[in-house]
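A common beginner's mistake is to predict each chain separately and then try to dock the pieces by hand. The better habit, illustrated here, is to supply every component at once so that their relative placement is modeled jointly.
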Amino acid sequence: MNEFWHDAGCAFHPVSAPDYLPPSQLRQLQLHRLRAVVQSSYDKVELFRGRMKERGMTPEDIRQVTDIRHLPFTVKTDLRETYPFGLFATPMNEIVRMHASSGTTGKPIVVAYTQEDLRVWSSVMVRCFAAAGLDRGDIIQNAYGYGLFTGGLGAHYGAEALGATVIPISGGNTDRQIMLLKDFGATAICCTPSYFLRILERAPEMGIDLRDLPLKAGIFGAEPWTDEMRKRIEPEANIKAYDIYGLSEIIGPGVANECVVQDGLHIFEDHFYPEIIDPETLEPVPDGEEGELVLTTLSKQAMPMIRYRTRDITTLYKEQCPCGRTVRRMRRIARRSDDMFIIRGVNVYPSQIEEALLSVEGTSPHYQIVLTNDGSMDDVEVQVEVSPEAFSDKVSVMEGLRKKLSASIERTVNIRVNVRLVEPNKIARSEGKAQRLIDNRKK
Amino acid sequence: MKMHQLSMFLENKPGRLSEPCRLLADAGINILTLSVADTQQFGILRLIVAGWEQAKAVLEESGFVVNVTEVVATEVVDQPGGLAGILEIIESAGLNIEYMYAFTFRCEDKAVIVFRFDNNDDAVSALQEKGVNVVSGVELYERARQ
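With all components supplied together, the output reads:
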C-alpha cells in the first residue's frame, strides 16, 4: 500500500481516504450515522430521551443532516450530573476502557469506549499523523501523559496503528525526554506546546541543539496556542509544529488536525459532525463566521454525544484546502470561552495576550497572567520572563521593552495592563497543560 | 582601552542582590565595583570583576541572565571641578552618557569613574585627545590588588 501511494507521487495516504470523500457521499454517510446515533441515544440514554420528549421530537424527525439543529445540546454539567455512568449507551460488558478528566473542579468527567470506539479512535489518530506527513518508519516520542488522561493512550494507539515506532515515554522527566530524542532519533514528538517550550529551553543546557536531531514534526495540542507561538517554536527546533485538536467528551485527541498546509485543522467529519453556533442565541451560524464549536459524535457507541458544546471559539472555513482534503477545516482554537476572563467589563482571552506579547521581538514565550482585586478595582498583571536577547544593561531599554509590551497588549485587548518583567525560570514550567491564568480576585 | 562589565536583571525583591554576590564569593571572585540601577519593579546590577568570563559562567549556571558590555574607566582628578572637566570634553564631542559610577579605590590623587557612553570608541578618542587617562582593565585589576 505504501509503495503504491509513494509511486503515485501524490500526498494521498490510503488511511486518509475518508478525508477525501466527495461532499455528497460524505453528507450521505453523515446522515446515515447521525440517524443511528440519535436512535441509540434515544433508546439508551435517559437524559437525551427526556430532552427529546420535552421538544416533542423522535429520532424519525432527523431526515437530513441539517435537522441536527433541532436536537437538544449536551453540556459539560450534564456529564457531571450523571457521574459516573449516566450517559453510557452500552452495557458495561461491551465497554472496554474508561478515561476521566483530572477533575480539578468537583467530580471528574468520565468517558467510555467499546472495542469499536477504540478502533475508530485509532483510525482518526492515524489520519492526524498522516495529515502531518508522518508514516511507517517514523519514530514518534509520545510525551502526552499516559493514564486517565486521553492524550497518552490516544496518541499511542494511533501511532501504532499507523505503523510508526512509538516511544511511550509519557509526560515529565525533561532530561530523559531530550536524551531519548537524541539517542532514539525520534522524528516526531507529541506533547503540549508549553511542554515543548520547556524541552526547547532545557536542551541547550544539556549541550544538545534540537536542530541537529532527526526531529522534524511536533504534534502539539491539549491547550490553545497561537501562530505567534508556532513562529517561535519552528525555527528553534527546525521542525514543523502541527496543531491537533480533541476533547475527552468527544473521543480524546484526534477530532481534527492540521495538514502540511498548516492553515486550519481538518475535522474528521465522517465521525464528528461540527456546527458553529452563536453562544448567545444558540443559533447556528454559516461557515466562515465565528462562534462556539458544537460537535456530535456520529459513530460513538459507548458514550455518544449529541451537539456537545465545546466552549471553544472558532470558524469553519468555506474554502477547500489546497491539500485536496474535502473534510472541512476549522481555524485553530485560540480561545476557549472557559478561559475567558472579564476585567473591568472587557472580555479577554489569555491567547490574545500571548499573541500581543510574542509579536514584540525578543520576548520570552514564558508568561503568566495574574488577576487581583484591591477591594474596588480588578487589576491585570502580565508577568514575562526577561530573555537573554531582550536584556540590556540600560534601564531605558528595559523600561522601553516593558512599555512596548503593555502597549501591544493594550492595542489587542483594549485594557491597560501592568507588565512585570521577571527573572528567567521564575514562571513555573508545566509538563502538561500550562497554567497561564492565575485569578487571585476574591470571588 | 575599554573594559568588560557584567550586567544582570534582578527583580526588585528582598534578597535578590545577595544571591549573585554570594555566588561570586563562593567562586572566589572579587567585585571591584558595582552599581545598581533600580526602578519600582526591577533592578539592573552592573559589576566590574577580575575574571569576567568565569564570573559570567558562574552566574549563568544559576540561571541569571548576564550581559557583557564594554565600558570606559577614566581617571578623574579628585578635586573640585575634576569631573566637570571630563564631562565638558564629552559634551563638546556631542556624546551621551548612558550611566556612570565610581570605583571604590583611588589612584594617588585620582578617582576612577566608569562610563557607559552611547559611543564608547568616540568617547575614548575624545578623552585621550584632551590628555585624559583612560584606564585599561588589566591596569585596574593590578591597582585593585595593591
